[in-house]
């Protein structure tokens, strides 16, 4: 069983709001490994949308992702890829209306 911890920078202009939080949880739940996310002093379950929403990770902030389990490497790779891709929201600008 592997435990991996990596830092990721939030790059999408709107930061971690409902849609990217839900996307993170969806990807995390594809894996058996436990996923923990930390920002500053807050530590949350990366498989919980409510937990992810409490992080309030704005653009430019860093989060620490920890995966723990048999597929920890695969889970970490998928989550880091999602965050690095800006949760596929790089086209959205602060203050712009979002499509639901």
Describe this structure in words.
There is one protein chain. By secondary structure, this protein is α+β, with helices and mostly antiparallel strands. It has one domain: Histidine-containing Protein, Chain: A (2-Layer Sandwich), CATH 3.30.1340. Helices cover 29% and strands 26% of the residues. It has helices spanning 18-28, 49-53, 72-84, and strands at residues 2-9, 34-39, 42-45, 62-69. A four-stranded antiparallel β-sheet has the order 1-4-2-3. Helix 1 (18-28) packs antiparallel against helix 3 (72-84). The longest helix is centred in the C-terminal third of the chain and has 13 residues, at 72-84. The protein is globular and about 40 Å long.
- Helical percent range? 25-40%
Computed structural class? alpha+beta
Determine Rg (CA atoms, Å).
13 Å
CATH homology superfamily name: HPr-like
Give the neighbour order of strands across the main sheet: 1-4-2-3
What is the CATH topology classification name? Histidine-containing Protein, Chain: A
Number of domains: 1
Question: What is the count of β-strands?
Answer: 4
| Second rung of CATH, namely the architecture | 2-Layer Sandwich
Q: What is the 3D form?
A: globular
Overall CATH class = Alpha Beta
- Main sheet overview: 4 strands, antiparallel
Strand content bin: 25-35%
Mean pLDDT: 90
Q: Unreliable segments (pLDDT under 50, ≥5 consecutive)?
A: none
Distance between the termini: 39 Å
How many individual helices? 3
> What is the H-and-E element order?
EHEEHEH
How is the secondary structure organized here?
Blueprint: E1 2-9, H1 18-28, E2 34-39, E3 42-45, H2 49-53, E4 62-69, H3 72-84
């Amino acid at each position: 069983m592997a435990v991996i911890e990596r830092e990721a920078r939030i790059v999408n202009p709107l930061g971690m709001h409902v849609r990217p939080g839900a996307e993170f949880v969806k990807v995390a739940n594809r894996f058996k490994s436990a996923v923990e996310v930390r920002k500053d002093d807050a530590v949350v379950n990366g498989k919980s949308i409510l937990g992810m929403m409490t992080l309030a990770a704005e653009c430019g902030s860093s989060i620490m992702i920890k995966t723990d389990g048999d597929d920890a490497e695969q889970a970490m790779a998928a989550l880091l890829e999602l965050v690095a891709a800006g949760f596929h929201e790089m086209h959205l600008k602060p203050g712009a209306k979002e499509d639901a």
